[in-house]
Each structure stands twice: as C-alpha cells, then as structure tokens.
Amino acid sequence: MDIWVSTSNSGKLNEYRNILEPKGFKIFSPADLNVFTMPPEDGDSFEANARIKAKAMKAVQPGHWVIGEDSGLEVDGLNGLPGIHSARYAGEKAQDSENVAKLLKMMSIRCGSNRKAQFVCTLVVYDPDGNEHVITGDLKGTIAAKQMGTGGFGYDPVFIPDSYEKTLAEMERSEKNKISHRAQAAKSLLSLMQGEQ
Ligand code: ITT
Q1: The one catalytic residue among 32, 70, 127, 138
Q2: Domain count, the chain
Q3: Active site residue 42
Q4: What is the tens place of the pLDDT at every residue in 123-152?
Q5: CATH number of the domain residue 104 falls in
Q6: Atom of ligand 1 nearest to the CA of 46
Q7: Number of Cβ within a 10 Å radius of residue 64
C-alpha cells in the first residue's frame, strides 16, 4: 500500500522509509510529483502545521493514504522552545548545525542545570476516504552539553533519550527507529492502517 508523506525533510522521509517499507508499505514524497510546493507553516501548534502539510498533499493525491508530520524539540528550561519553531530556530534558512548551536547557547544562558527535553511529533493522516486521523508520539530525554555522533539529523547530536548514555546521533539507525517519537507515531499509524485494510 502507498503512503504519501508531505515533507521536504529528507531525514524524516528516510526514517519513514526505514520503519514502514519493511512492513510492506511504499513511501512517496513531494519529490515523486512533477509540481508540488510545500505550503507555508503558519499554524500555532504541531497539529495545525501537520494539517496544513497533509491537506496540501491530499489536494493533489486524493484517494490515497496521506500524512503530514510536524515535529520538534521542547526544552523544559526554555519554556518549551524551540517547539514548533525547531526547524527555523536560528533563522528562516537555518541549517541543522546552526539550530543546534543556538540551542546550546540559549541553554547555557537560561537553563542552569535543567536539561530535560522531549521530542514530539504530530501526524495528521488522511485515509483514502478522506477521513482525518491525528496521531502523536514523543521521546523524553536530556540535552547533552556538546554535540556527539554523526547519525540522524536535526537535534539528534545533542539529544540523549532517558535510560541511554548516548545521543540519538550515536545510535545505529535501527536503534533510533525503535524508540523515537516518529517510531511511536508510525506504530500507531500502522495499527490504524492495518485496522482499516
Ligand atoms: P517539513 O515541514 O517539510 O516536514 P521541516 O524540517 O520543516 O520539514 P518541521 O517543521 O516538522 O519539519 O520541523 C521539525 C524540526 O524538528 C526538524 O527540522 C528538526 O530540527 C527537529 N526534529 C524533528 N524530529 C527530529 C528528530 O527525529 N531528530 C532530530 N531533530 C528532529
């Protein structure tokens, strides 16, 4: 069965492929369409932004499973920032490395010893009949004092999941894809899809 993921983020897309393709699903993205422009993310919540992305894809791929994902890192000592601003924390066109550098700087100014944080992920899913489903996943952990590891993407080099002593970027891809916020959400997505097959 096909799933269209409305994302321009290759890190997210690779993870969906790694998690869902072994289960027999085929993942498609905007790169498989001749013309598709990611819509502006001007919602005020993960769910609102996920819905904007999912609706844009549903408009061009009706009758398919479509998902929009909005995700981010919420740091307790920064009152939940960068949150929905995670992708653009250090500026509109910021690279992952710039966002991570800004995060470490803000934490050194504001966070004291409280380095607790969580990754969160909200999926808005449209089934082939056009019904909407909302799915969430999260992963709790702490922010490392410095970057460690080269795997993954985004804030992975500074995120240490609870009960681990390494960052997500130091893990094997398969290890991250068992525990991540995205893996939790994908598991619920699978139950939804298998229930409706
Ligand atoms: P799309 O909107 O095109 O899907 P995006 O990167 O802009 O791509 P988001 O608005 O959902 O996506 O922002 C998510 C950001 O949160 C992402 O760019 C990373 O900075 C961070 N993030 C989310 N999941 C992550 C993960 O598993 N590991 C590291 N960072 C993650």
Answers
A1: 70
A2: 1
A3: no
A4: 999 999 999 999 999 999 999 999 999 999
A5: 3.90.950.10
A6: 11
A7: 16
